[in-house]
Amino acid sequence: MSPFPTTPDPGARPVLVAGGISDSHTWNLVYLHLLLEEHGQRVVNLGPCVPEDLLIAEALHRRPALIVVSSVNGHGYHDGMRTVARLREHPELDAVPVVIGGKLGIEGPPGEEEVAALRAAGYDAVFDDSPAGVAAFRRTLAALPQRALV
Amino acid sequence: MSGVGFGAFVRRAHDAGRLVVQPRMGMSSPERMRAGLLATRDTAATTVGTITLDSYTRVGDLDSARLAVLEGVPLNGYPIAGHERATTRAVLDGIHGPGFPVQVRHGSAAPQHIFRALTAVGLDASEGGPVSYCLPYGRVPLRDSVGHWRASCELLAALRDSGAEPHLETFGGCILGQLCPPGLLVAVSVLEAMFFHRHGIRSISVSYAQQTDPRQDAEAVAALRTLCARFLPHTEWHVVVYAYMGLFPETEHGAYALLGKAAELAVASGSERLIVKTVAESRRIPTVAENVAALEHAAAVAARTARAPLEGTGTQTYAEATALVEAVLALDDDLGRALLTAFATGCLDVPYCLHPDNAGFSRSYIDADGRLCWSDIGKMPLTGIADVRPARAITSDELLGALSHVRRRYDRYDQGEPAVL
To answer: Where does the source fall among the domains of life (chain A) (predicted)?
Structure first.
């Protein structure tokens, strides 16, 4: 994981990692950065508190293979809905896979209705921070095309 | 030292032999916020109150905070700039005062709107800092944060003209919550306190967040006290310990054992105040009842702990912190500029911090004895001072292991087990 915040490999389409709009937490993003690299992905880590406009501009510029939104401050559901709605307004970003995970509500894991609403708004997958959620996320990563590992 | 305000309350409690305990607590509903403050005040402990703000207010997105208030959407804190002033005055009415001062906690790199809102309702105590509420916390450039914090200190300091004694607490003793070696935590806490002082604040608390090893923590608080005595003359200051700010134990006995260790650290090190964590910490934002239980547990442990501070100098942490503080002060007479230069050149470098203004060369690890150590000091002036063990790049599993080190250790012990922690 060095140097921050972008691992060098200009050829491959990167994975964009972003904290929620109002979420200042960092360790979740550092962990995802390492995990994605270990799965052969090039990572552009936008860090915590990523506004929609920045995420959209970076996505348009970098054409990522995947966008991972991570939030643990309890605003993940509301912030995440905003982010994906804005992102999907751009036809160029219509086909980019976008996933969200973490602690998404202030009262514990999201319910089925909230997960369905996040998916309807444009997320391809929603992960909670349980061991099952992490395992599901790892399976998603394993299914992604990898850059050559050296 | 005027005898009024948050700092004076804490000093009187300390002189009377009591540790002040405080929750992190903020709800968007004014009724629930008031009930939380009342419950804190009426706890069987010496307490001060907290209004923790929501994340939208923290990042300056006041439209979202106001919209949430209008629509009744619950937030993760109290939107002090989203509610009417009269509403917040009613929340505080008959509660905030000399016997129960209330502090606003926020996390903002641009807190002018927060300081205006809190002074407008008669409050005068808050916390943060130009480094600690910028680098680990978002995307605001450090240069902007330094300017915002200068203006915000001056805004708060102006209250002194009317006889108040506004209080600020550094958050610098907690950078990133975990895996930052204590020498750097102490240095940043001292530098932020000096920054507050240079911009007119005369009642200051310096934070230190409990880390992985009780002995190292005790050394760190002793170093912090020694450096404050040297660098904060003519200032009313005290030390506030934060109960562990990383991944908290998931079991009830583990959470209480770790909180108890924080209370012991606070009292034994001669610290004056403790901010608690609760049994709910690993899962969600705690309820008022969980906070009250944590406050009472911490106060009970504190009451049976004796003050036994270590010698401040002569430790690894003291040597590292002193070298860092002196190196930064030598960079520029203006402390704000000195901090900017320090981060631009890697003289200060927070491990694992993703902010573009952080050099990002330093790395840390937890050694076999549980102490936080450097595996890479980057360009920090710690050559020959820090004991550096170069390590290969960390994997995601190893990072998770280090982040969960404290949680695992405290969850593992059964209730009643002697504390061999």
So the answer is: Bacteria
Q: Which residue from B76, B139, B403 is facing A73, i.e. has the nearest CB? A: B76
Cβ contacts of A107 on chain B, cutoff 8 Å = 284-285
Q: Which residues of A106-128 are buried (b: 16+ CB within 10 A; e: fewer)?
A: beebbeeebbebbeebbbebbbb
The angle formed by the CA atoms of residues A18, A24 and A26, to the nearest 5 degrees, is: 65
In a domain, A3, yes or no: no
Closest-CA residue of B relative to A104 is B284
Give residue B187's Cα distance to chain centre.
Answer: 14
Nearest by CB to B55, which of A26, A75, A107?
A75
Cβ within 8 Å of B, A 23-52:
23-24, 26-27, 29-31, 34-35, 38, 45, 47-51
Residues of chain B found within 8 Å of residue A50, distances taken between Cβ atoms: 139
What CATH number is associated with residue B271? 3.20.20.240
Question: From the CA of B244, how many Å to the nearest CA of chain A?
Answer: 15
Q: Which residues span the domain enclosing B261?
A: 5-303
Strands B363-366 and B372-376: antiparallel
In a domain, A10, yes or no: no
Q: For residue B232, give both structure tokens.
A: 């904060």
In a domain, B29, yes or no: yes
Q: Which of B76, B353, B396 sits opposite A35 (nearest CB)?
A: B396
CB contact under 8 A, B76 and A75: yes
**Domain co-membership, B109 together with B222:** yes
- Asked if residue B27 belongs to a domain, the reply is yes
Reading chain A (150 residues) residue by residue, the pLDDT tens digits are 444 455 555 567 999 999 988 888 899 999 999 999 999 999 999 999 898 999 999 999 999 999 999 988 778 888 899 999 999 999 999 999 999 998 877 676 777 888 999 999 999 999 988 888 889 999 988 887 765 443
Residues in contact with B206: Cβ distance below 8 Å, sequence separation at least 6, in sequence order: B169, B170, B172, B173, B189, B190, B192, B193, B224, B228, B237, B238, B239, B240
Helices (H), B16-134: 30-41, 55-58, 62-71, 85-92, 112-120
Does residue B327 share a domain with residue B274? no
Contact (CB<8Å) B55/A73: yes
